[in-house]
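User: quick one, fold this
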Amino acid sequence: MREDHLPFFSFPGKGSDYVSGRDVADHLDNYQKALGLHVMTSARITTASYDSLANIWTISISRSGLPCITVTARHLVVATGVGTLGGVAPAVPSIPGKV
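Assistant:
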């Protein structure tokens, strides 16, 4: 299995070894739309509990400037991002030919 794509959707072929940030963002946007995923960014989970009998998560979510919401879901994915590494900036090497 190649490691340059998400499940079910290969990254669109480009003529270069490197892709732009815009191409990556477009691919992620198309991915969530094609699979009908509900993606929330800049959200904070305030509580999450799992009901093992019903196989359901109950999740309270707060979003800046918006009312807190409660949702139920069979699956929960939490992507914390780079900003949660205690202020550590990622190491980005200098690569010849990188756009």
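User: anything notable?
Assistant: Residues 82 and 90 are 7 Å apart (CA to CA).
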